[in-house]
Every structure is written in C-alpha cells, then in structure tokens.
Specification:
303 residues, alpha+beta, 10 strands, globular
C-alpha cells in the first residue's frame, strides 16, 4: 500500500487537469477526451503543445507516436508491442532504445501483475490507475548508452517503459540471483509512483522558484548531483518502496526466501537513502510553496 497524502493529485484530479488543459489549448474534442482517458500520446501532445491530425483516433493512435501500433491487453493494463515513432523517442530521450516487438515478452508482466493482484490488491489498483500502459524496450544494437531498467517520462504520462533488466534488477545496484516476478512488480510500481508525483508537479505549485534557481544536491550513492524535484521524486519513491519491500519480506513464501538477502539489502539501502533525502529536503524547505512544505512533512512523517 502506498503512502496516502492529500498534497498529491488523485487520479480523478489528474484526469480532469489533462482534460481542462487540452480544452483551454484548443485541442480537438478527440484529444480532449483521450487526455481525460489517460491515453499517453494525447497527454504528450497536450504537454508538448503539438497539435496533431484528426484522423485515426483510436487507442493505438494515442499509445503510439502517430503510427500504427499493436497492443496486448492485460486486464486494465495495455502493453505496447509496436508503433512508437523515432520522433517521439527523441522527445523522450529514449532514442537509443527500440520497442521490443514481441508480444510474448508481456507474459512476464501478465504473471507478475496476476501475483500482485492476488497478494497486493491495493498496489495493483494503484498501478492500474497511474501506469495503465507498459512498453517493453530493448537497447539498439551498437548503442553506447546503458539500457534502462525502467523509466517514466513526465511529458509522456501514464506509460512506464521497462526492459528485460527489470526482471532481475533492483535499482540502483542489486541484481537478484534468482528470476521471479518480484523485481518486475517493484519496478512497475516504482514508475507508477513517479507518474503521480510528475502529474502533481505539472499541475500544482510545489516548488516556489524557477527551475534555474533550484539548488543542486549531491547524491553520494550515485556520485552525482540532482535538482530538487528529482530529490523529491526519490524521497517519495523510496518511502513507498521501503513499505513495499518490508511487506514482501514478511510474506515469507518460497520465492521470497530465495531472494530475501537481495531484497533485505535493497531495503537497508532505501532506508538510508530516504533519511538522507529527507534531511536535504528539510534543509531546503524555503524553496517550497506551502503545499510543497506540507508534502515534504507528510512524506517525512512516514519515516
């Protein structure tokens, strides 16, 4: 179960916000309706300001980059098999990846989500709300970039991108020795959490100053610096993953026992990272609006 806070948009509020933004920007009724229905490409069009042709309005159309697309349906989740255009990948900074055009790979997602629905119904419903689309990617041949494990892109909401690494990788560094459904479930849940906060940051005032004035924060376990919104994202996600990993370890079934050491190590790392991130956010509380300060406080209280 994820942390409930009244400072993040509900799914109903997010849908209304996309619908209203599309309408005020003069998009067609088809795009307005599709944005309200959480169709990723419609929301992407609205956020990027790109007006699109009125032909071929369908679920496949909105899920793709304006080209034909195949989908695999897993209950309330739609899985993209083909069809996102190169232009769209460029906008999403995923140009070194391609859609893995093999519908059979989604059997992993199907079995993983079935398990989540069986044991963690509330988390399953949360994913269905905030990540109703999943797209499996592969790194392009000869690309020098690192293949993603999972990623969500704020300008392309409600769709989570995963690769085969998501089956065994718990970011940032733990690789499970045994293959199971746990990692894929955690990574999809992880991206759904990002989607909710991304929508909140787009439609509400959480950080008071302009982006160029945000402080950069040193992240020791990544040996890099992050802007404040990414720090907030990480704190929100880690807080929920601490709960997610704790509950899974308590489950104590045969599969969990096989990967318990890696999950426990990831839980320990998440707890330390979360404590550090909360200290950073509280030290920079002046940069947040009143709602932003309340959000940081609500996240911190769940330490």
């Amino acid at each position: 179960m994820w942390l409930r806070t009244n400072k993040l948009l509900s799914i109903a509020e997010a849908k209304k916000s996309f619908r209203d933004l599309a309408a005020t920007q003069g998009f067609s009724n088809e795009i307005v309706d599709a944005a309200f229905q959480r169709k990723p490409f419609a929301c992407y069009s609205v956020l990027s300001g790109k007006k699109v042709d009125s032909e071929g309005f369908s679920e496949q159309y909105y899920a793709s980059g304006l080209v034909n697309c195949r989908l695999v349906k897993l209950g309330p989740i739609s899985c993209i098999v083909t069809g996102i255009s190169e232009d769209c990948f460029q906008d999403l900074n995923l140009q070194d990846h391609d859609v893995l055009g093999a519908s059979g790979i989604y059997r992993w997602a199907d079995h993983a989500l079935e398990e989540m629905q069986r044991y963690y119904q509330v988390d399953y419903e949360y994913i269905s709300q905030w990540s109703p689309y999943i797209c499996w990617l592969k790194k392009k041949p000869y690309s020098k970039s690192t293949e993603i494990t999972s990623v969500s892109v704020p300008i392309f909401p409600f769709c989570s991108f995963v690769s085969s690494k998501a089956i065994r990788h718990i970011p940032p560094k733990n690789i499970l020795k045994k293959v199971g459904f746990y990692c894929l479930n955690e990574n999809i849940f992880h991206e759904a959490l990002h989607h909710q906060l991304s929508c909140t940051l787009i439609f509400t005032d959480i950080i008071a100053c302009e982006r160029e004035n945000w402080p950069l924060v040193h992240i020791p376990w990544r040996n890099t610096e992050w802007p404040l919104d990414r720090v907030l994202h990480a704190a929100w996600v880690y807080q929920n993953l601490i709960n997610f990993r704790t509950r899974h370890l308590a489950k104590g079934d045969a599969e969990t026992l096989l990967m318990a050491d890696e999950i426990a190590a990831s839980l320990y790392e998440a707890t330390n990272a979360f404590s550090y991130l909360i200290q950073v956010l509280e030290a920079n509380v002046a940069v947040f609006t009143s709602d932003g300060r309340s959000l940081v406080k609500q996240i911190a209280l769940n330490l």
